[in-house]
Amino acid sequence: MYELERLYRREFVRFVRVATAITRDADVAADVVQESFARAIKHHGDFRDEGPLEAWIWRIVLNEAKRAPTSRAVGEFATQAPAANGSSLDETAVRVLIAALPERQRLAVFLRYYADLDYRTIARVLAIETGTVSATLAAAHRSLREAIEGVRS
User: If we measure between CA atoms, which residue out of 53, 9, 12 comes closest to residue 33?
Assistant: First the structure.
């Protein structure tokens, strides 16, 4: 249990940052992280030490965030037209483009760039191979690059 508390104190901000990216609401995201850790404490016996505790917690946070009742459907969010401001996109436009990515690509982007997780940890969180993380992020980058070029055209 002490390890969970230490992880909570050390990584709370990163967990909330990713949950906010998924739920699009910082208050809901903080609740999601709280609920995730409460669930982890309640089900700590289910953790089998087959990987790092942090990866197990990340899976719980991602699942709770995706289930959060106030998060807008990705399709609804993705239908908002991104607006270009001169030569760069504003933050909302980038969020819309990320929201339009397939789920695994979107989650990999959140975990890599919002949580700053390494490829091995992302692989454990998403239950995929490390090489698949690399391919998934490459596909996400390609899709985002093409979408940005389309908006700027």
Answer: 12
CATH code where residue 48 lies: 1.10.1740
From 104, 107, 109, 31, select the one nearest 69 (Cα to Cα).
Answer: 31
Tell me: do 39 and 94 sit in the same domain: no
pLDDT, tens digit (0-9, with 9 covering 90-100), for 83-117: 444 456 677 788 889 989 999 999 999 999 999 99
Q: Give the three-state DSSP class for 5.
A: helix
The single residue listed with the structure tokens 């508390």 is 5
pLDDT digits (tens, 9 = 90+) for 30-80: 999 999 999 999 988 777 777 788 989 999 999 999 999 764 544 444 444
Three-state DSSP class for 85? strand
Give CA–CA dist 148/112, Å, rounded: 20
